[in-house]
Amino acid sequence: MIQVSAPAKIILFGEHAVVYGQAAIAVPISSLRAEAHAEFSRDKLSIIARDLDNKIIYFDGDDPLAETARLTLKKLNLKALQAKIIVQSNIPIASGLGSGAAISTVIIRAICGLTQNNLSNQEINKLVYEIEKIYHGTPSGIDNTVIVYEEAIYFVREQPIQHIANEKPLILLIGNTGKASLTKIAVGDVRKLFEFKPEHIKPVIEKIGWIAQSARQAMQNGDIQRLGQLMFDNHALLQQLTVSSPELDALVVAAKDASALGAKLSGGGRGGNMIALVTDDTKAQVKQALLGAGAVQVYETTIAKSDL
Ligand code: PMV
Questions:
Q1: Domain CATH for 83
Q2: Residue 95 Cα, ligand 1 centroid: separation in angstroms?
Q3: 150 lies in the same domain as 193
Q4: Model-level pTM?
């Protein structure tokens, strides 16, 4: 029996602008994970999705999970595999936490483990990216990268990943609007806006990129006040890209009123999750405020101090 796992993720800065080549920052959330248990069986490969009422996905089926398995076998030069892979996850679906990329990652790792093949993270990342294209259309690649490598990253499309030094632990609350939303649609709408009014949208996208660069500096300097302000600024720019929503705005305002250092939507937007930067002293009151303003769940996660 093989057992593997992969974390959820959140984007701290730069979502949407990252699609246009700007920098973004993302971190893994190690407490929320997808897992796969795999073993050989007599039948051809099937995947059992615990969170989808134990739905069975067959190897030749029309499903991104089946496609993940097929791509992996192709990469490993294997024609077939008789195995059963059970996947389960406590990462909320369609809410900007990377559940799709985490599931793809564990299916690939499970097949590698079972067949005693060793793919590098770089190779796994490429495969997961192929599947992300099915889910998202034209993904930047940030989700799969942070999830496969499971470390904080400074990401610029088609450039090697860069690691981030973080001088002070960062306490984040993740507020879930409870509203599922498809990244593909939000990304497509931003594209239409960009094509329709490039003179308005291009500067917004560039400002978001500048915010991500400044945020990296603030993390390196341990300047959490500045980091917080950059989050509020980033949220305002995302509103201009039309990817916020009344629910997300309400949570950001509630966090601000409860003395969060910063807050913004995270991921594709229009629903899903927002994040708030808090301290030990403010986290309880901000959590209460988020729940009072409509969050259906609030997770806490800490980004550890890290050197380069
Ligand atoms: O999948 P989500 O909701 O975390 O959003 C992905 C981030 C976007 O920048 C909106 C899209 C992308 O491909 O980078």
A1: 3.30.230.10
A2: 10
A3: no
A4: 0.93
